């Protein structure tokens, strides 16, 4: 009886013993010297990924604007980290896991600050901007959706039928001006409205003084030329880059201390080619947004190319608005003058 009892107890205890043995076997596998020899290719890929993010400014633009293309979608390079992590675990490679620290630390350093909610209460001036899409089938509904943000100033780009937007916004905004394919609508008086030459040959940018209760604010509305990704030419952005330089010069010469830029820049804050603009202004989304605030394409936003940038005032909050019939999402921000 005693012997039978001992044997039965041994079988019942096989579960815990098996679990312990399994854990020990797993630990023994990771103590094996081979864990440092395996996965060297994965480790090399992890290092390359980290260096690509860390040294993205060193990528040349001479060949297909490779640098700007990489910087446009730079946050998405982080998707390689979990893929390499899973492969390193499957391969049981300690070397690859340690190498992954480089891209992880680099990505967190570049974009970790955007993951937190930096919105605050307060502010006294709200603005919104939207590329409405030249082929928008319902301009009136799009205009009303942007106005529903409560913005004091609304900027619209890619206007081909401005009269329909003017009619839809007339009840909310008493002051407006359309220059070429861009327009500004304001609850406050507009002065010194004029087109801005961004070296295109037609008007896709304007400048206006908005007379707010807190004083004058210079507002720029701009739609930078489109960029294309072509197999035989890379990231074609030459015209946009020239327009960015021209707009940057105009903003640098602006006499007003308080400046807001609203528009579709066809580029992100990371894109070096927009430095003539971004070096002078502060991103409302970066300073007071929640997350990345991607605005394009509306069906699956992958990049924030629609920007609200300020100088001489403090962003309080920034957000994207619900989708309209455009291929861009509208974006809005509230600032403190």
TrEMBL record:
Source organism, top-level taxon: Bacteria
Biased composition (Gly residues): 12-21
Keyword annotations: Endonuclease, Hydrolase, Membrane, Nuclease, Transmembrane, Transmembrane helix
Residue runs in coiled coils: none
Organism: Streptomyces telluris
Ranges annotated as spanning the membrane: 35-53, 73-90, 97-115
Entry keyword Membrane: yes
Lineage of the species this protein comes from: Bacteria, Bacillati, Actinomycetota, Actinomycetes, Kitasatosporales
InterPro entries the record matches: Endo/exonu/phosph_ase_sf, Endo/exonuclease/phosphatase
Name of protein: Endonuclease/exonuclease/phosphatase family protein
Keyword DNA-binding: no
GO molecular function, one term: endonuclease activity
Domain Endonuclease/exonuclease/phosphatase: 128-328
Region Disordered, residue ranges: 1-24
